[in-house]
Amino acid sequence: MAVTLRELTDDNRDAVLALRLAPGQDRFVGSVRASLDDAAAYPEANAWYRAVYADDTPVGFVMLSWNVTPRPPHIIGPWFLWKLLVDRDHQGHGYGAQVVRQVAALVRAEGATELLTSYVPGGDGPAGFYERLGFVPTGDVDADGEIIVRLPLTAA
To answer: Which SUPFAM superfamilies match (predicted)?
Structure first.
């Protein structure tokens, strides 16, 4: 099932805020509410966020720093996949990979040559997910100890 990215509106906000992580995943990614709080706390990060839908069901949330001037340690960019959450009841269907591919296409169309993200190291974390999608380590670690990886974006 293909996913679509939709703006948060008054009609879908509660359903998107109700998305939940699987047990133990909160050490790797924050909730939707925490993500929106982060976006408000760092306006210079130029947060771009969308609800992830499978048909008419909200199944996830994605947030990027959109074409920003990097200001480490808090603002990484210019194109940084800041948050990616797939609801615990909808994991394992390939939605996360579809979201990353859609986001990569969007930022490539804006002139980006790479998409950055970071992850908490750990055996049960998202390292393998990002590696399978083509992300490679940059050699950098952010202020919170997360490993920064990059997805090279070739011309479409």
So the answer is: Acyl-CoA N-acyltransferases (Nat)
The answer to whether 149 and 137 are in contact (CB under 8 A) is yes
Q: CA-CA distance, 21 to 31, in Å (whole number)?
A: 7
pLDDT tens for 91-121 read 999 999 999 999 999 999 999 999 999 998 8
Alpha carbons 18 and 89: distance in angstroms, whole number: 12
Instruction: Give the distance between the most distant pair of CA atoms in the chain.
Output: 42
CATH architecture of 3-152: 3-Layer(aba) Sandwich (3.40)
Instruction: Give the H or E element holding residue 35.
Output: helix 32-41
The more confident residue out of 94 and 154 is 94
DSSP three-state, residue 40: helix
| pLDDT 10s digits, 114-129 | 999 999 887 778 899 9
Q: Where are the domains of the chain?
A: 3-152
